[in-house]
From TrEMBL:
Protein name listed in UniProt: Lysophospholipase-like protein 1
Residues annotated as domain Phospholipase/carboxylesterase/thioesterase: 10-225
Main location: cytoplasm
PANTHER family registered for this protein in UniProt: LYSOPHOSPHOLIPASE-LIKE PROTEIN 1, LYSOPHOSPHOLIPASE-RELATED
Reactions it catalyzes: S-hexadecanoyl-L-cysteinyl-[protein] + H2O = L-cysteinyl-[protein] + hexadecanoate + H(+)
Keywords: Acetylation, Cytoplasm, Hydrolase
Assigned EC number: 3.1.2.22
Endpoints of the signal sequence: none
Keyword Hydrolase: yes
General function of this protein: Palmitoyl thioesterase that catalyzes depalmitoylation of CGAS and KCNMA1. Acts as a regulator of innate immunity by mediating depalmitoylation of CGAS, thereby preventing CGAS homodimerization and cyclic GMP-AMP synthase activity. Does not exhibit phospholipase nor triacylglycerol lipase activity, able to hydrolyze only short chain substrates due to its shallow active site.
Biological classification of the source: Eukaryota, Metazoa, Chordata, Craniata, Vertebrata
MF terms (GO), sorted A to Z: carboxylic ester hydrolase activity; palmitoyl-(protein) hydrolase activity
Amino acid sequence: MAAPAALQRSVVSPAGRHTASLIFLHGSGDTGQGARTWIKQILSQDMVFQHIKVIYPTAPARPYTPMKGAFSTVWFDRYKISNDCPEHIESIDSMCRGLTDLINDEIKNGIAKNRILIGGFSMGGGMAMHLAYRFHQDLAGVFALSSFLNKDSAVYQALKRNDSVLPELFQCHGTADELVLYSWGEETNKMLKSLGVSTSLHTFPNLNHELSRTEIEKLKTWIVKKLPAEAAKTSE
């Protein structure tokens, strides 16, 4: 069987020397370029860092059950948009393999694994939690914006059997979200915390299923805290 094609991606290069990488996973039906443009509109400029490369990959189009099987750029399939149903684990695990290739590309470029952050919006945040907490527990951190995990998530099952140090989770959610309910995000946060993840949950009153400038600014501050600039090595 042919190896999966490399994911298409939109990249924002660091302004200076590249010593860390950030992977941002878009929401369902979007693209990497679309997520980048959305953030650019909110900030009036790209989300750019001195030393961190920002990578926005695009999910391959696949049939999506909540859209009656129509093709959509989604990271995985869902039986329905609910936190109270089984996960479509086959499609989740398949995409974890594709995203592992993306992480390995950065490592081949000389970036240490603990200098790589992954996260995303909505489904992208859910995907990031599966990827990091089940397969890549040595990443620098995870962020999930307007995201959730299903009640019996494979993530929870994996963490029940885990005793290693886990990446920190930075979570944001709007209280007015009508697609991914705030309570789903809150429950995800509580479950992960109870399983040993260091978590924060930033609440945004009146924010629907969207991003806000304050939220992205908070995220940027957290990113630089987790991936600080490295002092230039002096040659003696």
